[in-house]
Specification:
- The chain is of the alpha+beta class and about 350 residues long.
- The protein contains 10 helices and 8 strands.
- The protein has helices spanning about 1-30, 35-60, 115-120, 150-160, 165-180, 185-190, 195-210, 225-300, 305-315, 335-340, and strands at about 60, 65-70, 90, 95-105, 105-110, 125-130, 135-145, 215-225.
- The strands form 3 sheets. Strands 5, 6, 7 and 8 form a 4-stranded antiparallel beta sheet that branches. A two-stranded antiparallel ribbon has the order 1-3. Strands 2-4 form a two-stranded antiparallel sheet.
- A hairpin with a 5-residue loop joins β6 (about 125-130) and β7 (about 135-145).
- The protein is rod-shaped, with a radius of gyration of 64 Å.
Length: about 350
């Protein structure tokens, strides 16, 4: 910009010099004065204009994200398109070469609007496609691309400045419809957006490259389904959630039943163990009692009077007389007791005999 501004400033000065020289020559000629100075100034101005104007006309400033297509108007056929101009200050043949600037930076095209906008077809509406199962789907799509700088002449020859609406949008719509037709609506609804983007990108990339465009990315921003399909999917999801809840309740009941069975089995096993322990304890106790009785029998067999001693020993200290029923067998030997008490045994009975009842005479 600084160079072109400087050249423009010089052209302005040359034009002023030319006009000033001509005016000076005219004025001095009318007065009969010398006109040499005016002629020199006018000549310098004219030469400057003749040099600077073509030079300025042939300068082209190409920005870093641009490429210039050079069209030589005097050539024919393929020779009419010269080597593209890269970024920087370039010079072409003035008034012969025409430069058309193309943006080779990233560009994006939006096809959005949903079902309502698509039906009235305003601007670049969303893509209307039909799924494999016959459902109508609207997709908001954004295509990010750029022109291949090495093929800018091809783009200019094929599309000029109509490449977006003439090629990018129609080709994208076609590939989106082709990709959607390979999927069911439920697949797309349940999270098939990433796979759909990949499918569209793989199909669209070579088609764009064939025409001189490089695909950067394709984005599916929104997917709209018909109201009937959306309601059907929601009802299905609700039914699946209810089925999952029912299955969870059944599983929970089975777990609780299994837990109760394990607890009951544990209690039964514990009762068995306790019963076995009690039985073993009873057996041990019975064996101990039997062994005790055997030992007692052996001791009694060797000392018959031991039981009498133990019996007497257990009596109270104040017991002086023991009365036994007449029909009870004596546990003690009376003679032995008397001997132990220091009384001489006698053959007479201790109690007087009972008096005989008087005899009645008639």
């Amino acid at each position: 910009m600084a160079i072109t501004a400087a050249i423009t400033f010089l052209i302005t000065l040359c034009v002023l010099a030319l006009l000033g020289g001509i005016a000076y020559v005219g004025l001095n000629t009318a007065r009969g004065r010398p006109t040499r100075v005016g002629v020199v100034v006018a000549a310098v101005g004219l030469i400057g204009v003749l040099i600077l104007v073509p030079l300025n006309a042939g300068l082209v400033l190409v920005q870093p994200n641009e490429v210039g297509v050079v069209f030589r108007q005097t050539a024919r056929g393929d020779a009419a398109l010269r080597e593209p101009l890269q970024s920087g200050l370039q010079w072409v043949v003035p008034f012969v070469d025409q430069v058309i600037i193309y943006n080779v930076g990233q560009q994006n095209v939006d096809m959005v609007g949903g079902a309502e906008v698509s039906q009235v077809a305003q601007g670049r509406p969303a893509v209307r496609a039909i799924s494999k199962d016959g459902q109508v789907i609207y997709l908001d799509v954004t295509v990010i691309f750029r022109i291949d700088a090495s093929k800018v002449n091809q783009v200019h020859r094929s599309w000029r400045d109509a490449y977006i609406d003439g090629f990018i949008v129609p080709q994208t719509r076609s590939e989106v419809r082709n990709a959607v037709s390979l999927y069911g609506a439920e697949e797309i609804y349940s999270g098939g957006r990433a796979a759909l983007e990949t499918q569209i990108g793989e199909a669209l990339r070579p088609e764009l490259a064939r025409e001189g465009f490089l695909l950067t990315d394709i984005l599916i921003r929104d997917i709209s389904f018909s109201e009937q399909f959306t309601e059907a999917i929601e009802q299905k999801q609700i039914a699946e959630q209810q089925a999952q809840q029912a299955a969870f309740r059944v599983q929970q009941a089975q777990q609780e039943a299994e837990q109760a069975r394990v607890e009951a089995q544990g209690r039964a096993d514990a009762n068995v163990i306790v019963a076995q322990g009690n039985a073993e304890a009873t057996v041990v106790q019975a064996q101990a009692e039997a062994e005790a009785l055997r030992l007692i029998n052996e001791v009694l067999a060797q000392n018959p009077n031991l039981i009498q001693y133990q019996y007497i020993n257990q009596l109270g200290d104040n017991v002086r007389l023991i009365i036994l029923p007449s029909n009870s067998p004596f546990l003690f030997s009376l003679q032995d007791l008397l001997s132990q008490a220091g009384i001489e045994p006698t053959s007479e009975p201790l109690l007087p005999p009972a008096e005989a009842p008087p005899t009645q005479t008639p």
